[in-house]
Amino acid sequence: MIVAVSEADLLKAGDARLLELFRESPPGDIPAGPLEGTAIVRWGGAKVARSLARLVRLAVWRGKVFEQGYVSNRLTTFDILAIVAQVYRGPSLLDDRECIVVDYSKISLAARGIRDEIREVGPGLYLGVVWLFGYRAGWFSLRVPEVGEPRPAGTEKRAG
């Protein structure tokens, strides 16, 4: 069962609520194409979390692009695609239940110690947990863009 929540709900939620949502949500389908990302900071309250999420989105990380077993991160306002990882279904380090794993360990020198895990918490909305060398380090969300929302540079559909 997918628990219907929004990005705003995730930004307001405390760590305990994010853990609960992640645990009770199914993995969902592995996404395809570009997804809009939001960093979720768990200190300083909801107002700080919203402000930091905007700052991270403007300056650093904008989301991910999923393509046939791989993912690239969308970086900076220029949507530079970098830091590639493998994507597959596997057990979560959090609860050993199935999730979508974004595994940087085998193909990324820059992010070798990072593993992301995502589960679908609402239609087209994924909650992600970031693991750094086996320790839970943070949260993020990924959202399928709405119809009519501009596509990130470099992610146009290819002919063929």
In short:
With 160 residues, this protein is of the alpha+beta class. The protein is built from 3 helices and 8 strands; from the N terminus they run ααβαβββββββ.
N-end to C-end Cα span: 36 Å
Shape: globular
Oligomer: single chain
Rg, please? 15 Å
Please indicate the percent range of residues in DSSP E strands (runs of 2 or more): 35-45%
Structural class assignment: alpha+beta
List the uncertain runs.
152-160
H-E string = HHEHEEEEEEE
What's the mean pLDDT score? 84
Tell me the helix content.
10-25%
Strands ordered across the widest β-sheet: 1-2-3-4-5-6-7-8
Biggest sheet details: 8 strands, antiparallel, barrel
Provide key terms for this protein.
160 residues, alpha+beta, 3 helices, globular, disordered C terminus
Describe the structure.
The protein has 3 helices and 8 strands; from the N terminus they run ααβαβββββββ. Helix content is 19%, strand content 41%. It has 160 residues and is of the alpha+beta class. The protein has helices spanning 7-12, 15-24, 45-59, and strands at 33-40, 61-67, 70-75, 80-91, 98-103, 114-122, 125-132, 135-143. Residues 152-160 have low confidence and may be disordered.
